[in-house]
Write a structure and sequence with these properties.
The protein is α/β, with parallel strands linked by helices. Among the domains are: 91 residues, OB fold (Dihydrolipoamide Acetyltransferase, E2P) (Beta Barrel); 157 residues, P-loop containing nucleotide triphosphate hydrolases (Rossmann fold, 3-Layer(aba) Sandwich). It has 25 helices and 21 strands. It has a seven-stranded parallel sheet, with helices on both faces. A six-stranded parallel sheet has the order 16-21-20-17-19-18, sandwiched between helices. Helix 18 packs antiparallel against helix 20. Keywords: ATP-binding, DNA damage, DNA recombination, DNA repair, DNA-binding, Helicase, Hydrolase, Isomerase, Nucleotide-binding. This is ATP-dependent DNA helicase RecG. Belongs to the helicase family. RecG subfamily. One of its GO terms (molecular function) is 3'-5' DNA helicase activity. Pfam families: DEAD, Helicase_C, RecG_dom3_C, RecG_wedge.
Length: 680
Amino acid sequence: MILLDQSVQQLKGVGEKFASYLNELQIYTIHDLIFYFPFRYDEFEVKPLTELVHNETATLEGKVATQPSLAYYGKKKSRLSFTMQVGEFAVKVVMFNRAFAKKNLDLDDTVTVTGKWDMHRLQLTATHFKKGEAKSDNPIQPVYSVNENVKMASLKKVMRQAMVDYGDYIEEVLPKSYQDMYKLPGRTRAVWNMHFPESRILLKHARRRFTYEEFLVFQLRMQLLRKRYKEATDGNELFYDNNLLTDFVQSLPFSLTDAQKRSLAEILKDMKEPHRMNRLLQGDVGSGKTVVAAISMYGAVTAGKQAALMVPTEILAEQHAASLQDFFGDRLTIRLLTGSVKGKKRKEIMEEMEEGTIDILIGTHALIQEDVKFFDLGFVVIDEQHRFGVEQRRVLREKGIKPDVLFMTATPIPRTLAITAFGDMDVSSIDQMPSGRKEIETYWVKGKMTDRVLNFIKKEIDQGGQAYVICPLIEESDKLDIQNAVDLYEQLRTVYEPDVTVGLMHGRLPNEEKEDIMSQFAENNMQILVSTTVVEVGVDVPNASVMVIYDADRFGLSQLHQLRGRVGRGARQSYCILLADPKGETGKERMRIMTETTDGFRLSEEDLKIRGPGDFFGKKQSGLPEFKVADMVHDYRALETARKDAAEIIDNGWLDNRVEFKPLKKIMRKDFENMGEILD
């Protein structure tokens, strides 16, 4: 390993200047170079037309059947086309900016062309061509990410030199038992086949090997962090009164779904553990997270503790307080603490909290102010946890003596992403909706039908409903032709007022003003609310039965689903109308999926496939790794396997007490900052 940590300048043909160019690609050592894997592969293997995949790269061999024709357009741009005979098929070949090829191609010449295959038009758009038959010792060519100073040919040459001189020093990190169990090639052989694959099968096994290795190393890190967190955070064993909980659940006017029961059982099990709970409860809007949290908080109270629920906005805090009061009646003492609670009332609540006469305190970030003191806080629920900063969450946790913490989110996260991004947390999912809930009808309409949509809104309002109208930007942008909220607000006022009251809300308004507007809408003093996506989280407006989203193709599926969840909160049949004229296939596909399902978990999986993990959260998420080979969407089975294996290794202490796991420990130390102190 020490030899591989030498500078790339140790390699023959790599001088100081070329080494500096490699440094620009983050290649400093021989190890960096050897593990600088290709990002894709060009295949020059000739296959029958029947085996080719539409829109993928293919190589064809055949005879020129028509005289090539050349057309010029734009400045120095050209299009060369001809027909070639491939077996009994006539295939059209198109080449852009290859005017010189016309002189080299004659009727009946045998040619080999590679490019994008269009199965429907029997056409290949060629990027490579050569006269003669396809003779290549290496039909699969690696393609690396390079820059203007490092050419592909130079990188391949120095890569081969590195593998010849130092390939034998690559250290195996996977125990032999795991290689045998999953039929994985050894590390040295796998690295060779990543760079110089002799066949698709060998490349496939090399990729499979590194996919598993990357997932295993990452999951070992997550499982170890989780174990260390539990060991370092001794909690309180909360021995709740099971009889009181059972009576309460039976008193509810509805039955819990199987998913609610499963999540509740996981939370209650955590509460009995001597370690502090660190659990994420996720579920769709309307799936019943609040009642699961309520039962859990009641459990903490029966164990002699106080509970707290922190939410992002005052109006949401008020709604939670009202619903918990309905649930519990006179069983518990519940109080509400927000920024609006001042003077004598606030002082009373503070005194009651310190004396321990309040069982559950609900509030906004007002809960974490310094003068808020609890008698004995044992259970904390943080709703829409992504809306609070790490520091805010930490302050609330420290209000009690090691309270259990339950985070809640209404953004369903695909399992593959949850076990990667939140691998150091336990995750409970309520992936089932209560029966009897009316499904929101979703329609995709083109912009030219806007008048019909406006008429539909008026009809719903006349029958007692209310409507949200969402658009992506606050004010006009020269770059994007998007209907903006301010203009739309003015237009709708012209259409509907004075019969209907129209309001406007966006992110640049002060918080107090946003809360005031939302309250007016919730109380039906305003029938149409024009807004940007700030309404995405939280408030119940039972009368709201229409959600219209302008330029819907500009949003991700998860965000569209969250917006749709703002309606359908009451007994009325509700509708979501997506106004969009998407140009690309991706936008059209998003609209189609939205009209087909209201299952947030299915939509989040589709969103992950379309946008990729890096984009899914909307911003770069710390803790979400960049894998070189593994893809958490397509390789989810390997991710599940690695997670199971990592849990077994950590639970049994094998990293510390079995010699075959030492190389894995070493690579963890190398790959992750701060891992040394956790491993020691």
